[in-house]
């Protein structure tokens, strides 16, 4: 282990040994190192948002045939810093009749829920905040705290639009948790673990190949969890002013804003980790720090898709949003989960009699799962087609097209 | 003192204060928030006992589902922002008596318990415990019957809820 190939572990070891040599006990050193690590990961998350806000505004501008931010720094890359200063100096406005404690608590909860997610994301084989053996469940639990922040913000503002936004948020965030959890169970089944880093270790073939449907369901439902377009009903400008964050100003609004952008980046990181192999890539065995590069390349590719979807999709109606969740995503995820479990079990029962090469086993397994997924897609498309035909009802006979009357015989001759 | 003991003491104080505030707070939403803090404290206790799975489940089930349901239900009550009404009714002495009896009972049971002074045993094989729990839930000579009974109960509750909430077709 040296500084070049694995700097973070190197520094952590060096600092730990230094503190030990000062006469601190091992447990205290561990606690101090964990605190420093938590602070670093949190700061890193915020620093990342400064960049992603610029990136997203730039992309947004280009798609709409504008330049986007272009004044501060090259290509406007430092635009976020003036915005930050502006937001710091703004006045805090608390509406009359607002519940002050809850009103101030909500933005904090909302940001911290997103930042907590970063504790379990592995950046490289050796750079993991905490390797929790129930990491996937932890992600779900943290998401629940985010929902709490939105509800409290909407309720405590003492504003009917905020409250309506909060009601919609409950309907959306809590319902989309169901298919998200079901879709997350598929990688857990395939990787035989609930730890996020062990899931990455298990992806000798990426899980997007094994189960593209699960990846799609997870991606869609976590898009809905972020509350961005096309799922931005909770802050629909044309109906609810700004939804749950209507009354917030200054830094408190800034926290919701940062939380939203960070959440979008976080779901890309999660999708990249759980379905695209995370830090896996060539030469990560020799040089662990290279894993960070692979991780961020994959994350930014997914993030690009997230931004493209946000820019190009119109907002859903609330009934469409709920129907899509409960009548399409949830049954699909349930069927996929059951069939994947059965297929995987059957594969390992049949495996000893197949005489496969050791190296070929993951690929054969991936092929089987991919076939299963294709089969499910075909069945789903057929079902959707038949449902659509049934739902189109013929109400009346088609009216005859107006035809000009025959001209009198005198005109013809 | 080890860091774990310090964390335990801090979290214990926070949990107890939150628990008392749940019943003394005059605002329903504040009560629900204090309840969330108390439940979160319990989740931290699970972490200190090296039961990460239960800690996470505690957060998902109690904070993610039940507390949000509480808040949602109290949002729908009228005049939730106003602090009106008495906090106790005329049966308060009965409740106090039962609580006191419970306290005496628990103290009598726990006064001779050895667990306060003995250290927690070091658990071997950390990663296997989760799968052991899973196997225990479905093994016929352990917990499969209670587990299935709970499932039947939940399915019945779910069907009932769907029937009650469902559209009445004329």
Give an overview of the whole structure:
The complex is a heterodimer of chains A (413) and B (170). Chain A has 15 helices and no strands. Chain A is mostly helical. Chain A has a domain at 92-352 and 362-386. Chain A starts with 6 loop residues before the first helix and ends with a helix. Chain A has helices at 7-21, 26-63, 80-89, 100-117, 135-156, 160-191, 196-202, 207-210, 212-226, 237-240, 250-275, 290-312, 318-350, 361-391, 409-412. The model of chain A has no long low-confidence stretch (mean pLDDT 83). Chain B is an all-alpha fold. Chain B folds into 2 domains: 1-80, NADH-ubiquinone/plastoquinone oxidoreductase chain 6, subunit NuoJ (Four Helix Bundle (Hemerythrin (Met), subunit A)), CATH 1.20.120.1200; 127-170. Chain B is built from 6 helices and no strands. Chain B has helices at residues 3-24, 28-48, 52-75, 92-110, 128-138, 144-165. The A-B interface holds A 27-28, 31, 97, 99, 101-102, 105, 132-134, 137-138, 140-145, 147-148, 151-152, 155-156, 158, 163, 166, 170, 174, 177, 194 and B 2-4, 27, 29-30, 33, 36, 52-53, 56-57, 59-60, 63-65, 67-68, 71-72, 75, 81, 126-127, 130.
List low-pLDDT spans of chain B: none
Structural class call of chain B reads mainly alpha
- Gross CATH architecture of the largest domain in chain B: Up-down Bundle
The whole-angstrom Rg of chain B is: 21 Å
Overall mean confidence score, pLDDT of chain B: 82
Overall mean pLDDT of chain A = 83
